[in-house]
Structure formats: C-alpha cells, structure tokens
From TrEMBL:
Residues 17-156 form the B12-binding domain. It comes from the Bacteria. PROSITE patterns: B12_BINDING. InterPro entries: Cobalamin-bd (IPR006158), Cobalamin-bd_sf (IPR036724). It comes from Sphaerisporangium dianthi. This is Cobalamin B12-binding domain-containing protein. It holds the Pfam family B12-binding. The lineage of its organism: Bacteria, Bacillati, Actinomycetota, Actinomycetes, Streptosporangiales.
C-alpha cells in the first residue's frame, strides 16, 4: 500500500499484516535508528510505514489518519525526544481515530542521558502507552511490548464460502 503525504513524501506498506507507523521526531535527522526499528518490527510480524527523520507533527498525524495503524512508534536519537514527544502525542491523541491506538516513544529522550522517572511519568500521562529510554528497559522491553500488542490483536477473518 502506498500513501502520498501532503509534504510530497510517499509512505509504503506491503502485505496484509497489521501496520505500524514508524517516525522520527520533527527535530531529529537520524535514520539508522529508524532502519533498525523497522527491521525489528517487521521481524515481529508487522508491515511498517517508515516516515523517516524530521517528520513534522502534522505529517505524522495525517499519515496516522490515512494508515489507521495498529501502533505508532516514535524514535529519537538527538536527545530532544522528551520535548518533541510531549508536543506530538497531544496532537495524535486529539485525533479521534488514534485515541485507543498504542503510541510509544523511545531512544535518547534527553540531552543529559536517561530520563527521570518523573519525566517518563509525564510522557505516559501525556498519552504514550510506553516509554523506552536509552537506559532502563531499552530494546528488550520494546520487543516485548510490540509482541504483546500483536498477540492482543484479533486475527483478521477472511470471507470464507461455506458449502450449500
């Protein structure tokens, strides 16, 4: 499935697996983290629409409206994930279609290293379902969370003709 976004970018997801929308925060130009996460999430059975780095909040919200993802994953390496995350999660949660969609953030969320428990609580209170800081729960916790979301989803049932 290919989606043309307002800013001219094209987002692609193939197949019939549930879609995870993956994005960097608006201020973060790093891509290696997004490639790694895409491969990890695909390994866990999802199709991934990778919006790439420096994604404006409005583009992320629009892509979510178009894709109706099973989950939204936001990554940061530049250390501004906490600030950008607080801002963008409010916009995502304001979209009626995304109220119950799992939204997570992870990576280097602050310039001074691992976030305090208070900052993680603020991110969760703002609307994130989980926060995966560079320290603490890291990639193992993220893998477990993604797998649990997959397990909690109902399998799609195709139309099956029954004999007359």
């Amino acid at each position: 499935m290919e989606t043309q976004l307002r800013d001219g970018r094209t987002a692609v997801a193939a197949g019939r697996a549930p879609v995870v929308l993956l994005s960097g925060v608006a201020s973060d130009s790093h891509t290696w983290n997004l490639v790694y996460l895409q491969l990890l999430i695909e390994e866990l059975g999802y199709d991934v629409v990778n919006l790439g780095p420096c994604v404006p909040d409005e583009v992320l919200v629009e892509a979510c409206r178009v894709q109706d993802p099973a989950m939204v994953v936001i990554s940061s390496v530049n250390g501004h994930g906490y600030q950008d995350g607080l801002r963008v999660v409010g916009k995502l949660r304001a979209c009626e279609r995304l109220v119950a969609t799992p939204v997570v953030i992870g990576g280097k969320l602050g310039v001074s290293g691992e976030q305090s428990a208070r900052n993680v609580e603020r991110l969760v209170a703002a609307g994130f379902d989980a926060v995966f800081d560079d320290g603490g729960n890291g990639i193992a916790g993220f893998r477990d969370f993604v797998a649990s979301v997959r397990a909690a989803r109902r399998p799609m049932v195709e139309n099956v003709e029954t004999p007359a």
